[in-house]
Design brief:
The protein is an alpha+beta fold. It has a single domain (40-192), classed as Fimbrial-type adhesion domain (Immunoglobulin-like). 15% of the residues lie in helices and 30% in strands. Strands 1, 2, 4, 5, 7 and 8 form a six-stranded antiparallel sheet that branches. A hairpin with a 6-residue loop joins strand 4 (122-127) and strand 5.
């Protein structure tokens, strides 16, 4: 009986060591870093008077998007920032568009219309804060590095303002656009540097 227990203990020790060695190649540690700041701005989206807003895209013919990856209906919208109180080292701001249930794997907004005849298109956001329109991959960490940050202009009492300019447009995700309603939304937060 003792020999059987010793043999079982040796087999268990080697099996555990082998499993341990095998698992070290397929597992690891992910470190997440971030920062929260007391920096704040009051946001007015597209003249709505508050931080939520609506943007209405034009009604277009499906022929404007005859194939996959075609776009149409580019519509500007503004985020006016006022009453900005910045931390000493923060001078610039942009929006970070967050990943959520309305965002597909390509970083575009899925059509959430509940209408029985909804279109097959998605919505694409673009950064219009520079001379070139750059597509925004919603939810992607690259927004921190690739966004065009706008300088917050301070008045005499140290409170600032800025205007962020973005574009939304229809995007034929998988095929030519089909007729129907389009509706989606996105959550955002302001990011500072």
């Amino acid at each position: 009986m003792k020999k059987l227990l010793i043999a079982a203990a040796i087999v268990t020790a080697f099996t555990g060591a082998t499993a341990q060695a095998a698992s070290t190649d397929s597992s690891g540690t992910i470190t997440f870093n971030g920062e929260l700041t007391a920096t704040t701005c009051k946001v007015n989206v597209n003249g709505s008077g508050n931080s939520d807003g609506n943007v209405t895209l034009p009604t277009l013919e499906t022929s404007t998007m005859p194939a996959q990856a075609t776009t149409a209906g580019a519509t500007h919208f503004l985020m006016e920032l006022t009453e900005c109180k910045l931390a000493n080292d923060m001078k610039e701001v942009s929006a970070f568009f967050e990943y959520g249930s309305t965002v597909n794997s390509n970083g575009r907004l899925t059509n959430q219309s509940t209408d029985t005849t909804k279109s097959n298109v998605t919505l694409e956001l673009l950064d219009a804060n520079s001379t070139t329109l750059n597509a925004i991959t919603v939810g992607d960490d690259n927004q921190k590095a690739n966004a065009t940050y706008k300088e917050v202009v301070l008045d005499t009492d140290g409170v600032g303002k800025a205007t962020l300019d973005y574009v939304v447009r229809y995007y034929a995700e998988t095929a030519a656009a089909t007729a129907g309603k389009v509706s989606s939304s996105v959550v955002y937060a302001l990011q500072y540097k």
